[in-house]
Amino acid sequence: MDTVTEADMAIAMALMGGIGIIHHNCTPEFQASQVRKVKHFQQGCIREPAVLSPTHTVRDMLELRQLRGCSGVPVTQSGRLGGRLQGIVTSRDIDCLGEGQHGTPLGQ
Q1: Alpha carbon separation from 26 to 8, 37, 91, 98 (Å, rounded)
Q2: In 10 A of CB 27, how many CB atoms?
Q3: Interior CA angle at 92 toward 89 and 97, to 5°?
Q4: Nearest residue to 50 (alpha-carbon basis) of 34, 30, 70
Q5: Going by C-beta distance under 8 Å and a sequence separation of 6 or more, which residues neighbour residue 76?
Q6: Which residues share a beta bridge with 20?
Q7: 3-class SS of residue 24
Q8: What does pTM read for this prediction?
Q9: What is the dihedral of CA 3, 5, 10, 13, to 10 degrees?
Q10: What confidence tens digit (pLDDT) does each residue in 66-83 have?
Q11: Which residues have CB under 8 Å from 63's CB, separation 6+?
């Protein structure tokens, strides 16, 4: 099966054994960016990971988990992707904490 599509649908179709065709009426730059996204896709990799800093709180992690559904988040020195990794906070680390500890910084 094939159809005219953009990167996200082309990736989904490829995972199911189909192919997606980038529409020729798009600008060459847009076509190239869509093809680049499909070619760089790796199944199981998170394309836009959430990252926190040591100054973020447990409450921030809980809100992020609620918003994005992630169970583990890397903590970097700068709080940005590419920063020096300080550790990883997982659900197992924070599920046992009481309500009063939700203001605790992740760096502690």
Answers
A1: 16, 15, 43, 53
A2: 8
A3: 90
A4: 70
A5: 51, 52, 53, 82, 83, 84, 85, 86
A6: 3
A7: coil
A8: 0.60
A9: -40
A10: 998 888 999 999 999 999
A11: none
